[in-house]
Write a structure and sequence with these properties.
With 328 residues, the protein is an alpha/beta fold. The protein is 43% helix and 10% strand. A four-stranded parallel beta sheet has the order 2-1-3-4, sandwiched between helices. It has a four-stranded parallel beta sheet with strand order 6-5-7-8, sandwiched between helices.
């Protein structure tokens, strides 16, 4: 080998690590992703499997309806490249923290995702709202205008969107699109994970429809009106809610009205929720033949992760079938 060729070979070997290092750093890092609540976090975690793990704000048994930010949450948001949340009508505690992020992170409001079926808040009849715990005169049509601190304006929608697997699919598509745009190096992985998630969602939808078929005609009462999407999808018969808004505890007039509704309709079950006061359920059950059960629409009792969404939805279907079947 000539001296010139030898020098060229030595030079290329010396520079090889630098070239490899440059190639490695050319790849964009996996974005820091923060998600507001467990059901949405589960969808994001499913799409990020094998790539990264999103951070969760509302952990454990906490509820977005009553949550207060922690310093660790603020720190996570400060580091975030992408934040997924449902929207202003659900995680109100996040509004000011997200405003303060400014242009530091891409904020994705999933209630704007294309393809969602959105249902308006329902008020009146069994879902009539009350102010400061006292009953309003509802008028000829039984319409009221929202509980204290929870008024609904025309055009506002119920944001418990995830309780319909078709909506979960629509939100997952928006999540995948956002992640792929921010992290094109892993776009193929996000797409493959989305395809796998959609397959699971289709199977879940079919399974839930079969689970609740035997109890579709049996009325029941829930703690707060969070189940409209599940009801709409599977045609189960929610007769009313103890409170329209879990931030505001119902007064005696409201509880009396629900008690009378249970007796009138022959409601088979009244469902509590893990985060909220179960004594209220016992009050409306007293003197009726209805039984009590528990529904967990925000996954308070479940461990966060890719499987949580499926455990959450299966749990609702199973709880309904168990209580309503035994109550007949």
């Amino acid at each position: 080998m000539s001296l010139k060729n030898s020098l060229l070979l030595t030079s290329s070997l010396l520079f090889a690590p630098t070239l490899l290092l440059s190639a490695g750093t050319a790849h964009a890092e996996v974005p820091n992703v923060v998600v507001s609540i467990k059901p949405i976090h589960s969808l994001v975690a499913s799409i990020m499997q094998g790539v990264g793990e999103p951070a969760l704000i509302v952990e454990g048994a906490a509820s977005p309806h009553t949550y207060s930010m922690k310093p660790s949450n603020a720190a996570a948001l400060e580091k975030a490249n992408i934040v997924f949340w449902v929207g202003h009508g659900l995680e109100a505690f996040l509004e000011k923290p997200l405003e303060s992020l400014g242009s530091k992170a891409k904020i994705v409001e999933l209630d704007d995702a294309p393809g969602l079926e959105k249902l308006k808040f329902r008020e009146g009849g069994a879902f009539e709202a009350h102010d400061d715990g006292d009953e309003h005169e509802a008028g000829a049509e039984g319409h009221a205008h929202g509980e204290a601190g929870h008024h609904h304006d025309e055009g506002e929608f119920d944001l418990h969107l995830w309780l319909d697997p078709a909506n979960a699919k629509a939100m997952a598509a928006e999540i995948e699109k956002t992640l792929a745009a921010a992290d094109p190096d892993n776009a193929a992985a996000y797409k493959a994970n989305l395809d796998a998630l959609n397959t699971r969602l289709a199977a879940l939808d079919k399974s839930l429809a079969e689970t609740v078929t035997p109890i579709k005609d049996k009325p029941f009462v829930v703690f707060h009106d969070a189940y409209q999407y599940f009801e709409h999808r599977y045609q189960v018969k929610v007769a009313g809610s103890i409170t329209v808004s879990p931030e505001t505890l119902p007064g005696a007039a409201r509880l009396k009205q629900i008690h009378e509704k249970i007796v009138e309709l022959g409601a088979t079950c009244v469902f509590a929720e893990p985060q909220f006061e179960p004594k209220l359920v016992n009050v409306v059950l007293e003197g009726t033949s209805a039984k009590s059960g528990t529904l967990d629409p925000e996954a308070a009792t479940l461990e966060a992760g890719p499987d949580l969404y499926f455990q959450l939805m299966d749990g609702i279907g199973t709880s309904l079938k168990t209580c309503l079947s035994n109550g007949s």
